Amino acid sequence: MMILMPANSPTSLDDEVEIRPPDSRDKILEVAEGLFAYGGYSGVGMRQLAAMVGLSKSALFHHFPTKIDLYEAVLDRVLVRIEHGLNGAAIHEGDPVAQLDAWVDAVVCTLAEDAPAGRLMMRALVDEEPFPAISLGVGANGAEPDRELMIFEVRLAGIVERFGGLLERGIAEGVFRAVPTGDAILNVVGTLVFYFASGDLGEALVGESIFSHSAVSRRRREVSQFIRGGLLA
Amino acid sequence: MMILMPANSPTSLDDEVEIRPPDSRDKILEVAEGLFAYGGYSGVGMRQLAAMVGLSKSALFHHFPTKIDLYEAVLDRVLVRIEHGLNGAAIHEGDPVAQLDAWVDAVVCTLAEDAPAGRLMMRALVDEEPFPAISLGVGANGAEPDRELMIFEVRLAGIVERFGGLLERGIAEGVFRAVPTGDAILNVVGTLVFYFASGDLGEALVGESIFSHSAVSRRRREVSQFIRGGLLA
DNA sequence: TTGCAGACCGACCGGTCGGTCTGTATGATG
DNA sequence: CATCATACAGACCGACCGGTCGGTCTGCAA
To answer: How far apart are CA A165 and CA A210, in angstroms?
Structure first.
């Protein structure tokens, strides 16, 4: 009992000063990210994960109380990276179009950096496996949350909310079409994430690995143009 | 027990004469589609499925030799519906823009008709669970297929190929931007499918069920405008 | 030197997994 | 009537599942 670990990254206000990476824990998260991304929650066994990390299964349960806790930690880890990428981008400078470009480019670059992230995000948004479905707290119609939100859901809600604000400012200024923000957010997220989750299908379509340097730099141009075209007035 | 009505649509009464669909088989496919869509391949057990269908587990194995065969049949079933929707649309009439609109609208309408289809498609495109990854036969760089293609993969390849041809004609006529077709296809597919796979997230964003009549009719307008804006010159 | 905490292992638990085997009720066919 | 295929049910199998338990080893502090 009394398991919840106090020691962890300062969650959000990162910058630097990462104190103590206990190595094993990070390695578990790193390997688990890859496995969960490709196999899904129930497609990955703790024994398999332990073997690939190079630890015993019990060691995993020493670091994470349950499999679900591990899965949540993995999800939160990639969301932290996305948040970090956004914080480092100029998403608050210039007109809404420039902000949109910075936003899109930051997400694309973050997703391009580690391959499993895109698939994992797509799973988190679509899957219903460990937990019923992801939630964002209050919906657009103001329905109150019917259950406790998980850490990564709060983080995701923050990201979505920030993007929704950008959209609404752009619409108010007349730079963007008067789109329903819900549909627009889903369009953008789907476009951004699906490419990096498309794996071999994407490779077959673009003719090379979707994570190769040339494919990513082409992607940065194309997705920006596509989304601008879809949103601008 | 034994509540679900036996009445079933003749699945795809297109063209040919389907002889005698033994009812149970269709029922299994119908229930399995819902379960696989929300739980994923390895998140659904044959016992659970059997219980929900109202049959014994052995009955499932009587109709489908393995779980993977059942999964493939379920995937192929929704692809057949999408294909059917496309065949019934005016995707060969008018200029490329009109064809694009018809194409997009046909897919949206098909996906809006049964809720699990979108999630299942997203899974089929992203998951790596039962089979390594989906393939389309020859890639854009002309690599030959390294393994036997499954039925639904052939069907998917046909659909993608037809859409790629539409894109290229539009580009040749100067109506579409000179986009790399691979990226463009991924953009369109991601935008089209993700909405209907977004579940509670989508509901929170659009403020009502993503399958409600008003949400779907709004979606038809919005996605069409978004994709046209992203593709047109 | 003692004591305690974190990291880790191997064995084991009840339960579930996909899949097989045997048997049987039913309806069509000869 | 006998025969045979279809369409199921129920018992069962070995493998594997997430999770727990007792115990070991190491490092650090008193």
So the answer is: 30
Q: What is the pLDDT of residue B65?
A: 93
- Residue B176, helix vs strand vs coil: strand
Alpha carbon A209 to its chain centroid, in Å, reads 21
The CA-atom distances, in angstroms, between B193 and each of A105, A118, B185 are: 22, 16, 12
SS3 A176: strand
B126 vs A198: CB contact, 8 Å cut-off? yes
* Alpha-carbon Rg for chain B in angstroms: 19
Q: How far is CA A162 from CA A92, A166, A167, B105, in A?
A: 10, 6, 9, 30
Q: Quick one: which residue's CA is nearest to D20's C1'? A: A58
Residue B150 pLDDT more than 70?
yes
Write down which residues 36-75 in B have CB closer than 7 A to strand D.
50, 54-59, 62-63
CATH code, A76-231: 1.10.357.10
Taking Cα atoms as reference points, which of A195, A190, A202 lies closest to residue B136?
Answer: A202
| Domain at B78-231, CATH class | mainly alpha
* Long-range contact pairs involving A209-212 (C-beta distance under 8 Å, separation at least 24): A211/A112, A211/A115
Phi, psi at residue A36, to the nearest 5°?
Answer: -60, -35
What is d(CA B65, CA A207) in angstroms, rounded to the nearest whole number?
36
Residue of A nearest to B210 (CA): A183
Q: Does B24-69 carry CATH code 3.40.630.30?
A: no
* DSSP percent split of chain A into helix, strand, coil, nearest 5: 65, 0, 35
Break chain A into its structural domains and give their ranges.
76-231
The reply to whether A55 Cβ lies less than 7 angstroms from strand D is: no
Contact assignment for B190 to A191 by CB distance below 8 Å = yes
Model confidence at B2: pLDDT above 50? no
What does each C-alpha distance from A101 to A54, A97, B20 come to in angstroms?
Answer: 42, 6, 56
The two structure tokens encoding residue B18: 């389907």
**Alpha-carbon distance values, A189 to A133, A134, A200, B130, B228 (Å):** 17, 15, 20, 26, 17
Q: pLDDT (tens digit, 9 = 90+) per residue, B174-224?
A: 999 999 999 999 999 999 999 999 998 999 999 999 999 999 999 999 999
